[in-house]
TrEMBL record:
This is DJ-1/PfpI family protein. It comes from the Bacteria. The keyword Transcription applies. Residues 215-306 form the HTH araC/xylS-type domain. PROSITE patterns: HTH_ARAC_FAMILY_2. Keywords: Transcription, Transcription regulation. InterPro entries: Class_I_gatase-like (IPR029062), DJ-1/PfpI (IPR002818), Homeodomain-like_sf (IPR009057), HTH_AraC (IPR018060), INH-QAR (IPR052158). SUPFAM superfamilies: Class I glutamine amidotransferase-like, Homeodomain-like. The keyword Translocase does not apply.
Amino acid sequence: MRTVVFLLVPGLHLLDLAGPAQVFSTAADLGLGYEVRYVSGREDVPTAQGVTLRAGTAWPDTSPDDLVVVPGWRSGGEVPLRVLTPGQASGLAAHHAAGGTVASVCSGAFALGEAGLLDGRSCTTHHALQHLLARRWPRARVVPDVLYVPDGNVVTSAGIASGIDLALYLVTVWHGPSAAASIAREMVVYARRNGDEPQASAMLRHRGHLVDAVHRVQDRIDARFGDRLLLSELASDAGVGERTLSRAFVAATGLTPLRYQQRLRVERAEHLIGTGETVEAAARAVGFQDARMLRRLRSRPGAADL
């Protein structure tokens, strides 16, 4: 049993809390073994949306397998120098020092900074607060324009709805992509978004549909785009015939499964090349036998949209 503790700060945003809480609650419903708890400095916790929540006030016992999450709160572009009590800050630091995972949503990253957990780490927060976070914690490496940033057992996410992406990422780490995909489908979250991918990534551009069988195949391709994937295997995953899958996939995404896989490969290769890898090394890393196919795909008209 893994305990997920949400540390609630007065004025918190409901979706910062409710999104990831729903992920772990759904994980528990699916038998993955989660207990969700809530703690605050006061029993009655006002929220930015006007609903008052109830929480325990005693810091819970946690183990290295457990997770502590700090949702964000309404900041108005400014964040007080101190939002945590000394006991809360030391509790966060102690949990991390014992090997536990600590996460934040939106302005919750400032609470992690208070606890001394951002120094020397990559992190992110809401786009409107990124410059303030960098000024407040100059030893942190603030990554702009991403959904979430894992750095060891500290994971930070951007604003509001990105808390869902962070929680699904942690489920993927702990239980695999299939479990995360099952939770996403249960929550009717059809865009399984990666933390280091921009909003315009291929994984997102072709997720704006409601065909569950196609989403299941996309999940498989997303997780294994560097492998050789047979259409028969993909159709079996979707529970349909090969011709049915091909028609449904094209209708939903505008691409064949192979073309979709190629787009993911090229996009990842472009990222690797941009970080200093050779074309040959990038081609091998994404599953091409040599660089010729990668060069051919990159040279096509409209390759920037791959």
